[in-house]
Amino acid sequence: MTEKLSITPASGRLGVLTPGLGAVATTFIAGVIAARKGLAVPIGSVSQMAHIRLGRREEGRNPLIRDFVPLAGLDDLVFGGWDPISSNVLEAARTCGVLDEKDIAPVSSELEGIVAMDAVFDNQWVKKLDGKRVKNLDSKWDQAQALMEDIEKFRADNECDRLVMIWCGSTEAFQEASAVHETVDSFEAGLKSNDENIAPSQIYAYAAIMSGVPFANGAPNLALDIPCMVELAKSRGVPVAGKDFKTGQTLMKTLLAPGLKARMLGLRGWFSTNILGNRDGEVLDDPDNFKTKEVSKLGVLDTILQPDSYPDLYGDIDHVVRINYYPPRGDNKEGWDNIDIFGWLGYPMQIKVDFLCRDSILAAPIVLDLALFLDLAARADQSGVQEWLSFYLKAPQASTDAGPEHDIFIQQTKLKNTLREWMGEEPVTHSEAG
After folding, report:
1. How is the beta sheet containing 162-167 ordered, strand by strand?
2. Which of 161, 166, 197, 271, CA to CA, is 20 to 30 A from 371?
3. 350-364 per-position pLDDT tens digit
4. Closest alpha carbon to 373 in 42, 72, 144, 87
5. Is residue 213 a contact partner of residue 223, using CB atoms and an 8 Å limit?
6. Domains of the chain as residue ranges with CATH
């Protein structure tokens, strides 16, 4: 047995704040409310549905994760957020069109009662959207202060004991870190001078961390993975995780690529294309925003396949990603993958995958798990980048120079072993079976 961490109990109410009340956030909120009313099962949520094996398999100790670690209960969650378009969650849920009315109607009164706060929004970062419900303030510093005021008002009005924030907003235009992102001092100076390199998601991250609120970045935006935010999260003792929810096509890649590598089968090329018609698809129709997503998606295979260690198998891969906006498809994305592999004596073979997925249905349980696990991390006095939550993310942020791990099975082991360690149990290194 290892020494159990001292974790503050999950007493009281946990507020979950989401910058962006679009398809993902509204689907998450509606699903949680339905689950606590007994109208649905939280399918896809590891925190709610998965078991965790303790000790040797023959011991038969296999509790649910939610019974093993002191997570906040679904009944204790309170929801809020900011949105530049919709006035409340009910309006947004109906506009997004992810859920059928039969699923919205039983929770409609609760959804209508969640009123969106005016957002920090800048059209230069999301050219395809026109924000109407925005904070018209003179400087980015004022915007950050206004967000912190929103956070504290929400905390007080809803009698929350703790808060977490999960970015569920749009993908912003591509950018690389600049001088303003180097230190907390330079970032704060940039806020006051309206530095053009500071994006809205960075302002939300700053406001959350300064307010002591754990933050997860569900988009591929440059928000937490900049030196100033890493420094701030550590100095303020706030756990953070990012970035980009691992949902459709990338989820399939992190499932299939480890299998090819396990059998030492070669890979010559992987062509991926998507069609989707939701707000995310419209935003990604802009080349600058697509580049942000493309970088996130392209980073997966190299880390899993280790071409430097296996040059004969993975040293010459053509990896191509395309996303096409196609309004008739709505939130029901279709992802096609053509995978060119080779085997014994170099003979070529192909794998074809056609994944007709629902992006927000896959993302909603990720929001729930990240919220509950980040809250757990805060109560366990953890701070900075929570690499054990990489399981949920396309482009996970590493806490060391070794870089991120993308293999979903290694990520799963890391997640569960972190929970085991915190609760004083030995790690499991050989099998998650049972």
Report:
1. 77-82, 14-19, 162-167, 215-217, 239-242, 384-385
2. 197
3. 999 999 999 999 999
4. 72
5. no
6. 14-245+361-422 (3.40.50.720), 249-356 (3.30.360.10)
